[in-house]
Amino acid sequence: MSRVITIIILISIQASWAQHQTWKGKFEQLEQLLPTPNQYRASDGSPGPSYWQQQVDYKISVVLDDTKQRIRGSQHVTYHNNSPQTLKYLWVQLDQNIRQKDSDKITTTTSQINPGSKTNSKFLTYGMNLWTTDGGMHITALKDSNGNKLKFTINKTMMRIDLPVGLRPGQSVGFSMEWWYNINDRNEDYGRSGYEFFPEDGNYVYTIAQFYPRLCVYDDYQGWQNKQFLGRGEFALTFGDFDVEITVPADHLVAATGELQNEEKVLSKKQLVRLQQAKSSYDRPVVVATQEEAELREQSKLIKTKTWKFKAENVRDFAFASSRKFIWDAQAVKIGDREPLAMSFYPKEGNPLWEKESTKAVVNTLETYSKYTIDYPYPVAISVHAADIGMEYPMICFNFGRPRKDGSYDDRIKHNMIGVIIHEVGHNFFPMIVNSDERQWTWMDEGLNSFLEFRTEQERYENFPSTRGPATSIIPYMQGDIEGMRPIMTNSEQVLQLGNNAYGKPATALNILRETVMKPELFDFALKTYSERWAFKHPKPADFFRTMEDASGIDLDWFWRGWFYTNDHVDISIDNVAWYRFGAETNATEEGLENPSYFEVLSTSEDSYGEFRGRYDEDAFTAKYEQKEFYKLTFSNLGGLVMPLLLEFEFEDGSKKKIEIPAEIWRTNENSISKMFYFDKKVRAVQLDPNNETSDTNTENNNFPRKEATSNFEKFKQKVKD
């Protein structure tokens, strides 16, 4: 009778070492790439015991000139130095200076002659410097709290304020500024803020942001974040309190960051009653300002003005929208012990779509994001309709999605509009609350936000055609020419395909991390822990990576390294499946699933037992396994990105069995591995990643025996089409 040899070879990895393996350390830790933990940022990813951050408070007055399309403003700023350093100067962002004729945005944009370019093409606007607006912010006064002039130096989109006396730790300094700038036409230069003109009635919708000089972030990680604004890398901003007065034509409605302080002076009696009703309406929006009222205001063109007053606490920025065209609706939302108002402002050109879907999408976003992160802490969340834009600020965002001129729309228009509202409202959480550095790491807000947008779309809308998040959606990008890619961990201005790099790929990575690598329970706890730790603080990538590992108990360095630091893609191949049986014959031909190979097991020699006194019951062992069917699967990692092996075995009787193997199976050989399995039944076929969970770019090598396969991307396109 055949006897047993060490059984471990049947149930453990058999490392098929390539003769000339190229080892790239895919499972090495990230310690050498991440900053050393210190008293400010702890090794577990949480803020350290000596963590600090600055605070900047603003008291701002602005006037919107509806005749000249110009902003005039003044502000008093109080800067609180909570750092351990004495500051001799302060850095301020003048983002409107990107529209100056000699801005780095213009001079560093590559260009070439493109015959047939449209008159409004970005090639002409940026590449050829054909601005139609006299752009840039004009600083007309800068004084200290005593009225003395302060010295300042403007360096393109940055301004340095030199302090007469160093600002020591724990001290505050106040200063005042005055400025003006011309508002840009977004139809001509695609700006994040600006105005849209409606020739049919001669009115404007103003979506105003980056309108005031904003203090840069000074932190423990890099000191001043004063990189020039080139247009792509967005904003790094400091938390503070805002007291803002906005003077506009008297027939305008204004939506803004914060809570309205003087509603009784700027709203009609009917609007006040409706707004009060909205605060207790939890199942549907209440129309505060109707379309009929908006159409009457479109005709009034009042010259006299009103001043709207807003206050916002502990926010990193302020933005507003103003127009006589606005319709306004609002609905209360229960979030923990808070009841914020979800609101929408839109011109009649947005209806009937906006009155049906906008505020509903705001509600869905607040509820879903709060579940996964922290309870929404602010009093309002506003969606403003503006053509061809999606842009976010604290408590307010500007969103596209316009029906055709006859008011009709299809599912594509509706889904795109809902998706952008979810995305931009979701930015309240990342980066407005969990306040990452957008100028440096776009993925930390766009990627995390796109992932939670995907969760909201899938949980709140039936059969929503999500385009970012599904594992299959990123395949075309990852199949592309590597010369057109950059790793996710690349500064915003060097990224070549921003949508894929900073939105799509991180969203997909996080979805795979949740559904396949970590599983939802561990992932959700870790993400909520990160959100709670870094709410109203300034996290860096290492803080996210470390917290996700610390809160889950899973070593994810291989995942961050592969998905975030390389351009590798997923292409794992089932090279062969060999069928084995116990038996005296030894014909290890490995002929796949057609014929078994037999292997003989021998008795365990006495010296193999070492110091053990006990002995195997070799007859019992043989009796238990001699009727089993054994299979050796051999895999190749062709794409370079190590991933778990998700296997589905189909048996001759038609039944199936799924087995998941963690990515660590590749730790001893990053290129080729094999593993043994045994079953009571004969295997008919094996499939890798049967549910398309890993973004495998080539499904034709995922089956054994080989068969025709529809690519993951083709399946994704069909799903979107359906």
Automatic annotation (TrEMBL):
CDD domains per record: M1_APN_like
Positions of the UniProt region annotated as Disordered: 689-722
Range of residues in the leader sequence: none
Biased composition (Basic and acidic residues): 705-722
Comp. bias regions, Low complexity: 691-703
Residues in Peptidase M1 membrane alanine aminopeptidase domain copies: 366-563
Highest taxon of source: Bacteria
Listed name of the protein: Peptidase M1 membrane alanine aminopeptidase domain-containing protein
